[in-house]
Write a structure and sequence with these properties.
three-stranded antiparallel β-sheet, alpha+beta, four-stranded mixed β-sheet
């Protein structure tokens, strides 16, 4: 396996529990699992964007004169027809945010295949499935 990027540890990551932030290929990742996922996508020539696509899952609104902020969900990786969110440890808010993201996709008739790998083995299975699905579409 050829290593092409440089790995570089950052010092803190307050938003992700038990995660070690890293810089690889000049991209700042929030966890080692995200870097592992990115490397597999790159090795298998699967085009993805890392934290580039944002989904407004709840619009801002006013309630009894109080302005309520909207909610945005930014998945780790977005590809042609799939979304991958690497989650080693989930915080308390994540299940609700994930459910709201699914509802947003449903409401907007967006047909992404969703993946939620929790460890390296899960990431490997996700990449294998994406490769398999892509090969089936070409035939």
């Amino acid at each position: 396996m050829k290593k092409s990027g440089k790995l570089h540890h950052s010092t803190s990551n307050k938003k992700v529990k038990n995660a070690t932030p890293l810089t690889y290929d000049k991209i700042e990742f929030k966890s080692k699992l995200e870097v592992y996922c990115y490397k597999l996508f790159k090795e298998n020539r699967i085009p993805v964007e890392y934290e580039q696509t944002k989904f407004q899952i709840l619009d801002p609104f006013t309630y009894n004169g109080e302005k309520i902020r909207g909610m945005v969900f930014t998945p780790d990786f977005v590809g042609d027809n799939f979304v991958v969110e690497c989650k080693g440890f989930m915080n308390d808010a994540f299940p609700l945010r994930w459910k709201m993201f699914k509802y947003y996709l449903f409401n907007n008739k967006l047909r992404y295949k969703l993946y939620l790998p929790r460890n390296k083995k899960d990431v490997e299975l996700v990449v294998q499935e994406i490769i398999s699905n892509h090969t089936r579409r070409i035939k």
